[in-house]
Specification:
Order of helices and strands: HHEEEEEEEEEEEEEEEEEEEEEE
Number of strands: 22
Radius of gyration: 31 Å
CATH class of the largest domain: Mainly Beta
Number of helices: 2
CATH architecture of the largest domain: Sandwich
Number of domains: 3
Helix content: 10-25%
Largest sheet: 4 strands, antiparallel
Structural class: mainly beta
Strand order of the largest sheet: 4-1-6-7
């Protein structure tokens, strides 16, 4: 019985070797280096392979899934042979181009695997039987994930304000930006925005970390661009209960009552300063688009308060 098992395994390994040679899947060191270079020169997106062996024997030596992109080798996925119920999940970065996936080895009914693209869509679930050769050709369209550049942050104590500036990435896949303060999402901005301001007078004293993250249709692993600062509001008194803005929602003109106003600054929902008026208690908002705005109101006593304003024509 033992000799029969050894003979059976030997036959399978020989057939496997013949299939490898016939399909040119014995890769040279030079070809592997070419593959690595290609990865650096192309944008990459992740493919997820969920590999399973329901019978628990694993895959025989050099058997598995061969991967090429535009004819360039990207390696071989396999499960080790042995006893045990084998399963594995592998994530591989592949560039745009024609992906060909090949089964390397002999027919065996127990193999099962699923393949997901960078948008986590199921693009293949293995069918039985599988024979040596190409079983899937797929045109890969990568999401171009590009980080922001020229990121800068500043804290203006006198104005109780943190300003963030950056250069938007040149990617047609960009859908916007998320702004976080200490891991709390405080703003979602359109893709053309390159500026954000945060009013800090109502924050408790302490360390704060502001991060700007570009948003793409699929999950991208990018290094966060962040600005860290210690914010102190010592000596600042917020008179928000003494200041009244009306009417709110507003259509044409708003009034500010409760104290003598020295300056009013208005910010849109992306944090951009759009208006400054001095020594007045009225503002004409007729030309503004419908939306939510922030008023930073400075009084003659040197205090500052913040109010939300809704414009709805």
């Amino acid at each position: 019985m033992k000799k029969l098992i050894i003979f059976f395994l030997s036959v399978i390994l020989i057939i496997n070797y013949v299939n490898l040679a016939a399909n040119n899947y014995i890769y040279s060191e030079k070809e592997q280096k070419t593959s690595a270079t290609s990865r650096l020169e192309n944008e990459l997106c992740n493919f997820r392979f969920v590999l399973e062996d329901s019978d628990g024997f694993g895959w025989f030596t050099e058997m598995g899934i061969g991967i090429t992109v535009d004819g360039v080798d990207y390696g071989l996925l396999y499960l080790p042979f042995g006893l045990g119920n084998y399963s594995s999940e592998e994530v591989i970065a592949l560039p745009s181009g024609e992906i060909q996936l090949s089964w390397i080895g002999v027919f065996f009914e127990s193999y099962h695997f699923k393949i997901y693209n960078s948008s986590d869509e199921l693009i293949y679930s293995s069918l039985f039987p599988l024979y040596a050769g190409v079983f899937l050709t797929y045109q890969n369209e990568c999401i171009e994930c590009v980080p922001v550049t020229d990121f800068e942050g500043e804290y203006i104590y006198e104005e109780h304000q943190v300003n963030l500036n950056w250069k938007a990435p040149e990617s047609t896949d960009l859908t916007g930006f998320d702004v976080y303060r200490n891991d709390e999402l405080i703003g979602h901005l359109p893709p053309a925005t390159t500026f954000y301001s945060d009013y800090t007078a109502e924050l408790e004293d302490g360390n704060y970390k502001y991060c700007v993250i570009p948003v793409y249709p699929s999950i991208c692993t990018l290094e966060d661009e962040c600005f860290e600062i210690y914010i102190s509001n010592v000596g600042i008194t917020n008179y928000k209960n003494n200041i009244m803005v009306y009417p709110n929602p507003a259509t044409n003109v708003i009034n500010v009552a409760g104290d003598l106003v020295s300056a009013i600054k208005m910010y849109n929902n992306t944090g951009q300063l759009i208006l400054i008026q001095h020594n007045t208690n009225t503002i004409n908002v007729f030309s503004l688009q419908n939306g939510i705005y922030t008023l930073s109101i400075e009084t003659s006593t040197g205090h500052t308060t913040q109010k939300k304003l809704i414009v709805n024509h």
